[in-house]
Amino acid sequence: MAALLDLLSWLSLLAGVAFAAIGGVGLLRMPDFYTRLHAASITDTLGAGLIVLGLALQSGWTLVTVKLFLILAFLWFTGPIATHALARAALADPGQPDPLLHREPPPSKP
Predict the structure, then answer these.
(1) Is 83 a residue whose pLDDT tops 80?
(2) Could you tell me if 44 and 20 are in contact, meaning their C-beta atoms sit under 8 angstroms apart?
(3) CA–CA distance, 5 with 96 (Å, rounded to integer)
(4) Whether pLDDT at 93 is above 90
(5) DSSP state at residue 103
(6) Containing domain of residue 24, as a range?
């Protein structure tokens, strides 16, 4: 039973790290602010959830697990709110370019 818990914990930790790394690559590779924000927010939330799950499986049913789930709840509430606030602030800024979906495509060359 302990080996199964260790395996599930390590799989969860590795998947969480992979999602966090993919989010970091998304920040570097995406073309504009809004797509970068989307890439970072989605993968960050899932990555943090998987990492906390892996840590909770390692700690067992203790007070540490309760604290980990409180941290996870805080991250799940504040992450999307912060992302939404950043996107709204960028849309309200007149110096910020429009999102790629709102732009006209460049004219095609004949």
Answers:
(1) yes
(2) yes
(3) 48
(4) no
(5) S
(6) 2-94
- Output the pLDDT for position 104: 64
- How far from 50 is each of 1, 32, 66, 90, 109, CA to CA, in Å? 20, 27, 15, 30, 47
Place of tokens 């993919």: 22
User: By percentage, how much of the chain surpasses pLDDT 90?
Assistant: 45
**Environment class of 44 (CB within 10 Å of its CB; exposed 0-12, middle 13-18, buried 19+):** buried
Quick check: is 87 in a domain?
yes
User: How many structural domains compose the chain?
Assistant: 1
Distance CA 60, CA 56 (A): 6
CA pair distance 58, 108, nearest whole angstrom: 56
Average per-residue pLDDT for the chain: 87
